Amino acid sequence: MAGGRRLSPACLFLAVALVVVVALPELAAARTRRYTFNVTMATVTRLCVTKSIPTVNGRFLGPKVVVREGDRLVVQVHNNINNNVTFHWHGVRQLRSGWSDGPSYITQCPIRPGQSYAYDFRIVGQRGTLWWHAHFSWLRATLYGPLLILRRAASLPVPQAPHRGPLMLGAADRRGPNVSDAYTFNGLPGPTYNCSGASDTFKLRVQPGKTYLLRLVNAALNDELFFAVANHTLTVVQADASYVKPFTADTLVISPGQTMDVLLTAAASPSSPAAAFAIAVAPYTNTVGTFDNTTAIAVLEYDGAPQQSALRSLPRPALPLYNDTGAVANFSARFRSLASAQYPAHVPRTVDRRFFFAVGLGADQCQSRVNGTCQGPNGTRFAASMNNVSFTMPRTSLLQAHYQRRYSGVLTANFPAAPPVPFNYTGTPPNNTFVTHGTRVVPLNFNTTVEVVLQDTSILGAESHPLHLHGYDFFVVGQGFGNYDANNDTAKYNLVDPVQRNTISVPTAGWVAIRFVADNPGVWIMHCHLDVHLSWGLAMAWLVNDGPLPNQKLPPPPSDVPRC
């Protein structure tokens, strides 16, 4: 590496501890943290266009929410726009607080215009970088922000490290959010786009020789992203707020919904005469559809560098090609849980229930060809499904229906454990590519150990699908290319130190196996975090029943929970 320095192996474990954020004095003990979100419209100018967008408290990005492990968090939301809205606290376990999870019509009815709702939950056993975002329609395009969980001061084993960020990686559009026109750093597209200059460029200042923690979040609607800093190597220490065995990389891959904490060591003597370097993001995709194949840059500036660096001539990192699946697979395979005495990996060694989900696109009958709404092949409409079931969004809250035991007409507990018709998933697609529809869930008894193999399919083109599970972290025990082979692939599982995440990408033309323990009662959606695929039905839900003990049961809904 030129211009930066790698951490020695002896320093890597120490670096993990340095990940733990700057401790804020006002957060000395567990307590209740309160925030107010006023959802309002605000005018912004980006990419030569001025328009009105939904915001929280008139700001884009939204406010940074900071709590400490063990805190109770209360966020009072007032909806002052003309759209329904909900908020999801992405990656928070929500132990027995499913009423605050946020996905519309899953754990709550939306907050209607003029109404309010208080999200009220406790942070249990988690620390690191998470985030929050709207979970209704496409509103998370502009309604999102960071959620930082600090460790308890008493558990800090080593001195703290300064942090920079959070760095929210997003997308900007001129007209609509379904396809981006630019990628952004904390809402700023940088100098590579028209009508975008120094004032629209995010800058990160560092001091020579110091190591910093960067908190990264991919908040883009539909884009997996490569991330790199010119002439600097990064050390990955946390993923989705779970510690990992530290490893170095020149380029990161971050899927929508994922977070990553990395260490960056500023060079003692920067190689660039201007002491400024490009931070770059660009897409990874294998889609056959339209996508934004541009590169956005921010600036890493050393103290003492000129304030007005020549932005377009900065040293830039060499990013992989947009369809370099091999680079993505190699990066993904490097993640391992810390699996230490203080942070053990409680991997389920045995499994009570196994599932095989074929994940991918499909076709649907199109009722109207007006205004180009039928964009699928042969006059059909694009759809997406798991096990050929395209999720139908209910018209009432599934959690409310579950709590009241009023399932009729709302959901059916018959989501298939395997595809109804097996086929060559990554080979020639079947002749019939039409999906079925339903609000179908999988019921689970409390404390059931679950294994799910998520298999990509080549129907209408193989591509990566970032799957997010609400209410749980899971262990990624295996992954590979081609069709999953239960006879051979299971024997290769990592049951010692698999990475623990809440969002994982199903590899293009491949599979991934996850395990979790169903120890959190409620209704929990699992869905693709590409919003276009979610809108096509790429989702399902787990219905986890109460356990026998009082602390294993879903409590009653709060009095202000929205009604449908």
UniProtKB/TrEMBL annotation:
Known EC number: 1.10.3.2
Organism domain of life: Eukaryota
GO biological process, one term: lignin catabolic process
Residue ranges of domain Plastocyanin-like in the record: 39-152, 174-305, 415-546
Keyword Nucleotide-binding found: no
Alphabetized GO MF terms: copper ion binding; hydroquinone:oxygen oxidoreductase activity
Subcellular location: Secreted, Extracellular space, Apoplast
Cofactor binding, per record: Binds 4 Cu cations per monomer.
Signal peptide range: 1-23
Reactions the enzyme catalyzes: 4 hydroquinone + O2 = 4 benzosemiquinone + 2 H2O
Listed PROSITE patterns: MULTICOPPER_OXIDASE1, MULTICOPPER_OXIDASE2
Lipid biosynthesis as UniProt keyword: no
Protein role: Lignin degradation and detoxification of lignin-derived products.
Similarity comment: Belongs to the multicopper oxidase family.
Protein's UniProt name: Laccase
